[in-house]
Design a protein that fits this description.
alpha+beta, about 180 residues, transmembrane helix, 4 strands, transmembrane, four-stranded antiparallel beta sheet, TadE-like_dom, 4 helices
Length: about 180
């Protein structure tokens, strides 16, 4: 009866040798996937934050008082957007040398807003505000390199994230 039972010496080692490469490939793939998703979310957040934090207060003051719009495009707009982007990546893992901004345009327009105030008998009335509107647009590209060598053949050494930035926001307000 014992001669039919086979020896199982080394079976665990063979199974381990077959399973460990597959496990490591899956692990490295998940590490790279997590890294790419993290970079994408951080990049999108930084682009939005850059558009909200762009501060051209002296230009907005000039537009408010002269009622003449200001337009920046080309190199100057790209440089202003890149400077603001670089300020907003502090504390993130975004490499500012792999970010490029093209087709930038910044426009500041004058405007007016009428606010109807209903208060008591002595405080009701209309208040007229001078305003500025800041319009920002541009194309932002960011190259992500994978962390592990497993993803490099599949991703051709990098992935390029694109963001078509467009944001219009109300700037300064002042009562007449």
């Amino acid at each position: 009866m014992f001669k039919f039972i086979r020896s199982e010496k080394g079976q665990v080692m063979v199974e381990f040798a077959i399973v460990i490469p597959i496990f490591l490939l899956l692990l490295f793939f998940l590490i790279d996937l997590g890294w790419i998703i993290y970079q994408k979310v951080t990049f999108d957040y930084t682009c939005r934050k850059m558009a909200w934090d762009l501060n051209l207060s002296s230009d907005e003051d000039w537009v408010m008082y002269t009622r003449q719009p200001i337009y920046y495009s080309g190199y100057k707009a790209n440089r202003l957007l890149k400077t603001e982007f670089d300020k907003n990546i502090k504390g993130t893992h975004i490499d500012k040398n792999k970010v490029s901004i093209t087709d930038g345009m910044i426009a500041i327009y004058p405007g007016r807003k009428l606010y109807k105030h209903r208060g008591g008998a002595t405080t009701s009335g209309n208040v007229d505000f001078k305003t500025t509107t800041l319009e920002i647009q541009g194309k932002i590209k960011y190259k992500i390199e994978p962390l592990t060598p497993v993803a490099k053949p599949f991703l051709r050494d990098s992935i390029t994230l694109n963001s078509n930035l467009y944001k219009a926001r109300r700037g300064k307000m002042q009562t007449n």
